[in-house]
Amino acid sequence: MKFTVNQKELLTNLLIVNKAVSNKNIQPLLSGIYLEATSNNKLVIRGTDMELGIESEISSFVEETGKIVVPSKYLVELVRKMPMVDLEFITGESNQIKISYGVSEVKLNYYEGGEYPSIHDFEGECFLKLKGNDLINAIVLTQVVVSTDSTRPIFTGTLIEIKNKIVNFVSSDTHRLCHTYIDEMETNTDRWEAIVPAKSLKEVSYIIDEDDDIEIHFTNNRVLFKIKNIKIVSRLIEGKFVNYQQVIPKEFNTDINIIKKSLLDSLERAFVLTRDELKSRLNTVKFNIKEKVMILSSRASEIGDIYEEIPIYLEGSEIELGFNSKYLIEILRNIESDEIKIKLNDPQSPGIIMGNEANQKFIYLILPVRLQ
Predict the structure, then answer these.
(1) Interatomic CA distance for residues 112 and 208, integer angstroms
(2) Helix (H, G, I), strand (E, B) or coil at 250
(3) d(CA 372, CA 359)
(4) Which CATH architecture has domain 2-112?
(5) What is the pLDDT of residues 306-319, one digit of tens each?
(6) Where are the beta strands (DSSP E) in 228-279?
(7) Which residue has the higher pLDDT, 111 or 120?
(8) How far apart are CA 199 and CA 238, in angstroms?
(9) pLDDT (tens digit, 9 = 90+) per residue, 180-220?
(10) Is the predicted pLDDT of residue 148 greater than 90, yes or no?
(11) DSSP one-letter code for 115
(12) Cα(162)–Cα(44) distance, rounded to whole angstroms?
């Protein structure tokens, strides 16, 4: 195996592929990055942890074809620290590959690549084509309320649902739920749903650019994302997602318009008091909604208390209820709108948070907490 490749282009793609490699994997082969020099002057770079697989293909000058697996921990760091010149890779005896850069060289042990898992390109039963900026936005919005509880796997992913000529993205950690949608896309089906692991979608959002066209192919147990020279394959999560449409209230007794920054700043100050108190695991903040003002208050018995008033525009009934300040802060930090709407019913029913009139393609639902 012998090939020459540009250092900058190689590093860029190694960093992308390395996102799928787990250094904790007990199989040494899966702790490495697969390199294949092909007869058409391409270098195939691949990484996988058997749940997520990423493969890219870049131009190289190939003199001898071959396939090997190099430990990712050392390959990535060494290439990162090499000068921006063409790098020559040559396999030799004792299962070592020599990387030459100018008059210098380094040798790394490698594994034979024949047993490394492949990433198959497939045409799925369901096909989607989306704009990069739309997909990034949907992933970012839903990621904040994904659960990390592995005992309830469906909540560790995001539901992607095609219905009525739009694509819905829904995630929930059982305390909160996010729903957003994309209405500009191409598809070959009227109805489809799949639960994609949040980890996989997060890596997709890091890899794609806003101007990219993204192809997505689904089978019953896998999803394939195709972006330029990159393929990302992930398993799907088995199970049925909650009926989110039944969970989201259709009517509300209290509608509030409020400046997001004012509310976020107040919540962050209140969180300073409650975050360290053992008895206040819910980080509870009380909201007293009056005609023109939201009164926010919180008490930590061993530290102190806070009282703040925030101007609002209210339509409907006054109400008093509590929320977990940490959950609210995470949601508000994720919303770009300067002004937000909060819709409520009663102290035991979920409320929703949404953007202003120009940004209403998403809602967050959040459950209140019982006041002491």
Answers:
(1) 31
(2) coil
(3) 35
(4) Roll (3.10)
(5) 999 999 999 999 99
(6) 230-235, 254-259
(7) 111
(8) 15
(9) 999 999 999 999 999 999 999 999 999 999 999 999 999 99
(10) yes
(11) T
(12) 33
Give the separation between CA 60 and CA 3, rounded to whole angstroms.
7
Q: Quickly state the pLDDT bin for 281 (edges 50, 70, 90).
A: low
Alpha carbon distance 372, 278 (integer Å): 15
Q: Which amino acid is at 24?
A: K
In this structure, are residues 38 and 44 in contact, taking their beta carbons and an 8 Å threshold?
yes
How many Å from the N-terminal Cα to the C-terminal Cα in the chain? 70
**Can you tell me the distance from the alpha carbon of 199 to that of 257, in angstroms, rounded to the nearest whole number?**
34
User: SS3 for 126?
Assistant: strand
Higher local confidence (pLDDT), 36 or 277: 36
249-280 in b/e form (b: 16+ CB < 10 A) is: eeebebebebebebbbebbeebbebbeeeeeb
DSSP class of residue 117 equals P
Rg (CA), the chain: 25
Decide: 353 and 363 in contact? Cβ < 8 Å. Answer: yes
CB contact set of 264 (below 8 Å; sequence gap of 6+): 329, 332, 333
> Using alpha carbons only, what angle is made at residue 106 by residues 103 and 24, rounded to the nearest 5 degrees?
155
- Do 126-246 and 249-366 come out as alike in CATH topology? yes
CA 184 from chain center: how many Å?
21
Q: Which of 184, 196, 186, 198 is nearest to 238 (CA)?
A: 196
**Alpha-carbon distance 226 to 268, whole Å?**
40
Measured distance CA(120)–CA(15) in Å, rounded: 21
The CATH number of 249-366 is: 3.10.150.10
Residues in the chain: 372
CATH assignment of 126-246? 3.10.150.10
The residue among 22 and 322 whose pLDDT is bigger is 322
Q: Which of 316, 314, 320 is nearest to 347 (CA)?
A: 320
